[in-house]
Amino acid sequence: MSRPQFDPATYDAQLAEKAARLVELLAPFEAPEPEVFDSPREHYRLRTEFRLWREDGQRHYAMFEQGDKHTPILIDEFPIASRRINELMPQLKAAWQASETLSFKLFQVEFLTTLSGDALITLAYHRPLNDVWQVEAEGLAAKLGVSIVGRSKGKRIVIGRDYVTEQLTVAGRVFSYRQPEGAFTQPNGEVCQKMLNWAYDVLGERTDDLLELYCGNGNFTLPLATRVPKVLATEISKSSVNAALANLDDNGIDNVTLVRLSAEELTQALNEVRPFRRLAGIDLKSYNFGNVFVDPPRAGMDPDTCELTRRFERILYISCNPETLAANIAQLQDTHRIERCALFDQFPYTHHMESGVLLVRR
């Protein structure tokens, strides 16, 4: 696949290349034709990070080619980022240009926005932050209508909230999500919404329970929990666990038990290799698991976790790396077959793709 470039006129051809690549990877497993979910051509990315580059006495937003930290690409607008980010970029730049307090040793800016219009800006400094900085930052936050997080070595100052609130609609119901600063969230909100609706449809209305591994902030947990009697969900990141618990509470979802364990640790617990204090009071044998949902990191599932999923009648797998997805399916293909698959174009104009498969027992 040739290196993609940002050019909306070539988007359809680039998406077709990705679909062909996914078909090629899943061909050994006799997968059906993938359902393809496209992205907005512009203004699709809800979060982004810029280094600042000093030139002609001023700091400018800058990005760098991979592997080259010395040749900045100076930018004033960023068409792949959300319209809200593009609105905020010149306003923030004007603010730091007018204030030595805000600009002194400022080296990085991060924007986190949502489809529902919420915004948070993180300002990172190579110097301590003091009360004078906080007063100016509070004024800036009020002027821009955003929350601001200031970061310096060993210090973090929050003005407003340290999270944004997103709203995503799945099967006609609006779910509210707290997305914390610094934690992982899906960058393409429109495509994320399509992923959630696909997973909701594929899971279907069930009478058995769901095990979810790598649940993050509850992105999939919330809608999928409405399809089953009970969910046991796991996540290792403490900030993501806290966000997921808040999201469950905010949405009135009370049939989910969330434990802070890695997928590998839960595998050990289900295999009765050793007990875990964080599972105290949870009767794993009381669950009637028929489905497992996994959304692992780019490395995919480790071999033991992959073997664990083999126990389930149905495996719903969302992947950010089709190569490791294919490797995991190769381990499972003797007991499970692909019934449905999909391509979600989370990352237009790049080689990356998000995909999903439903594996059912043969």
TrEMBL record:
EC identifiers of the protein: 2.1.1.35
Catalyzed reaction equations: uridine(341) in tmRNA + S-adenosyl-L-methionine = 5-methyluridine(341) in tmRNA + S-adenosyl-L-homocysteine + H(+); uridine(54) in tRNA + S-adenosyl-L-methionine = 5-methyluridine(54) in tRNA + S-adenosyl-L-homocysteine + H(+)
Alphabetical keyword list: Methyltransferase, S-adenosyl-L-methionine, Transferase, tRNA processing
Listed SUPFAM superfamilies: S-adenosyl-L-methionine-dependent methyltransferases
Domain of life: Bacteria
CDD domains for the chain: AdoMet_MTases
Ribosomal protein recorded as keyword: no
Entry GO CC: cytosol
Listed Gene3D superfamilies: 2.40.50.1070, Vaccinia Virus protein VP39 (3.40.50.150)
Binding site for S-adenosyl-L-methionine: Q186, Y214, N219, E235, D295
GO molecular function annotation: rRNA binding; tRNA (uracil(54)-C5)-methyltransferase activity, S-adenosyl methionine-dependent; tRNA binding
Catalytic residues in the record: C320, E354
A Pfam family per the record: tRNA_U5-meth_tr
GO BP of this protein: tRNA methylation
PANTHER family on file: TRNA/TMRNA (URACIL-C(5))-METHYLTRANSFERASE, TRNA_TMRNA (URACIL-C(5))-METHYLTRANSFERASE
NCBIfam families noted in UniProt: trmA_only
Family: Belongs to the class I-like SAM-binding methyltransferase superfamily. RNA M5U methyltransferase family. TrmA subfamily.
Job of this protein: Dual-specificity methyltransferase that catalyzes the formation of 5-methyluridine at position 54 (m5U54) in all tRNAs, and that of position 341 (m5U341) in tmRNA (transfer-mRNA).
Protein name from the UniProt record: tRNA/tmRNA (uracil-C(5))-methyltransferase
Biological source species: Stutzerimonas zhaodongensis
